[in-house]
Each structure stands twice: as structure tokens, then as C-alpha cells.
Amino acid sequence: MRSYAVEFIGTFFLVLTVGTAVLSEAPLAPLAIGAMLMVMVYAGGHVSGAHYNPAVTLAVLLRGRIGVTTAAGYVCAQSLAALAAGPLALWIASPESTRRLSLSGHQLVAALVVEALFAFALAYVVLNVATSSSHSDNSFYGLAIGFTVLAGAVTVGGISGAVFNPVVALGGALAGLFDWSALWIYLLANLAGGAAAGMGFRVIHPHDSGPLVTADERTDSPELSMPSGT
């Protein structure tokens, strides 16, 4: 249960930071979001692996480091955190009005592409810096993960909202940042990017990938999803 609690806490503060920073129009919102993810990764990596993102959880599952039961528990904890943080961000910021991001036409297609690409980049970075035996006992994994989100937010924030995380989209919709009708875009693109990263890691690092596991095939050890000694 402590792993699920860590996933809830880390996701809660990530979604709260996204919602509050964007609603209050903080000029350094991308930096705040990347920094919050970084510190929460450092805080929880040794316990749960610090996914805070269903797309990352899917990538780690397909990479073979956790089982289905743990992955499902992580997604439930992440979703509950978003459900709690989204309305709280709206209440804290209390904007006079909100402008929901609505996507159509070329922008919708562009959003699908960039969300899939940067979700892939995020999950790919997590797998390589936080689960690879080549980088065991490193101390830079949190920086790499946080800066991936920062780079993505600066690059494509004006195109898709720079979500890269289905539960951030859920929390954002509750906070008034996204149209509910657009959630499928983030769900599809982000999970596709995470799945591609997980399978891509297996192809690139065949000797560093575990079997595709289920809860019945092995005992889950979520803490192995981050370098030992962190």
C-alpha cells in the first residue's frame, strides 16, 4: 500500500502544480511543473518507482519490471489523485474565467502527434535513466525526467497543452483547462507513446528487459523500477 500512497502523493502535487500554475498564469509555469515532477521523482522513486503517469506505468509494465496488478493499482492511485487535485487547483486559483483548450482540425491532429511523441520521450527517458542496469545507482534520473517535461512544455505547450499524462488531462478538465470532449486525444496519444517506449526499450535493450509479466507469474517489486540506492 505504501507504493500506492506514494503514487497518489506524487501525482496529486504534479496535477495541483499544473492546474494552479496555468490557471494563475504563472510566467514560469513550465519550470514549476518540471521541477515539481523532479522533486517528487526523487522523493518517491525508491518506494514506488515514481511513475505518476499511466503512460509511464504502461511503459514499465511492457518493459517487464512490474506486473499487471501493481500497474492497475498505480493507475487507480494516479486517477484518484487527479480527481482530488483538479478541483482543488481551481478553488485555489479562483480565476475570474477559464478558457478551456478546444482542439479541432489541424490543431487536433498536431496535438495527437506531439502528445504521442513527447509521451514517448518521457517514458523512454524514464526507462533508460531509472530502470536500466547501465545506469544503476545514478543520481541524475530525477533531473532527466523533470527536464523532459520542461522541454516538452516549452516546445508544444501552445499546441496541445503539453499534457503527456492522461491523469493530468483528467485533472485539467476538472480544473477547467480542457474540454471533456478532448480527453480521448490525451488518453490515446499518451498511452500510445508509453506503449511504444516500453516495446522500443525491449528491442533496443534485449538483454536488459524482463519477460512480459502478469501478477500470477512473479512477485511485483515496484521499488526495482528505480536505481538501487536512491
Describe the structure.
The protein is an all-alpha fold and 230 residues long. The chain has a single domain, classed as Up-down Bundle (Glycerol uptake facilitator protein). Helix content is 66%, strand content 0%. It contains eight helices and no strands. The longest helix has 26 residues, at 68-93. The chain is globular.
Throw out a few tags for this protein.
230 residues; mainly alpha; Glycerol uptake facilitator protein; 8 helices; disordered C terminus
Topology diagram in text:
Blueprint: H1 2-23, H2 29-44, H3 54-63, H4 68-93, H5 105-130, H6 141-160, H7 166-174, H8 183-204
CATH class: Mainly Alpha
Q: Superfamily at the CATH H level?
A: Glycerol uptake facilitator protein
The total beta strand count reads 0
The backbone outline, from C-alpha atoms, is globular
In helices, the fraction of residues equals 55-70%
CATH architecture: Up-down Bundle
Sheet-strand content, in percent, reads under 5%
The total of helices stands at 8
The poorly predicted ranges are 214-230
**Helical/strand content category:** mainly alpha
Radius of gyration from CA coordinates:
17 Å
Instruction: Report on the biggest sheet.
Output: none
The name of the CATH topology is: Glycerol uptake facilitator protein
